[in-house]
Amino acid sequence: MTSKVDEALSYEQARDELVEVVRRLEAGGTSLEESLALWERGEELAKVCRRWLAGARARLDAALAEEEEGGAEGDGE
Questions:
Q1: What domains appear along the chain, each with residue ranges and CATH number?
Q2: CB 18: neighbour CB atoms within 10 A?
Q3: Which of 38, 41, 46, 60 has a C-alpha 20 to 30 A away from that of 14?
Q4: Would you say 9 and 3 are in contact if contact means Cβ atoms under 8 Å apart?
Q5: What is the pLDDT of residues 10-57, one digit of tens each?
């Protein structure tokens, strides 16, 4: 479950933190417990990013559909 704090993150904030989590995991040198905590945080951040991207896609799809409707109405004139 995503926290209220995570829901308030912008796409860019979540993406940047996710990049840092991945960097730390790839660098190694963390305990198993720390690695698991980082992995879990990364999963939460990825969900935040996916929600932002899904919202952006929906907005684009709506704008394109509106444009197509406007273009279809204009064709009959």
A1: 4-75 (1.10.287)
A2: 18
A3: 60
A4: no
A5: 999 999 999 999 999 999 999 999 999 999 999 999 999 999 999 999
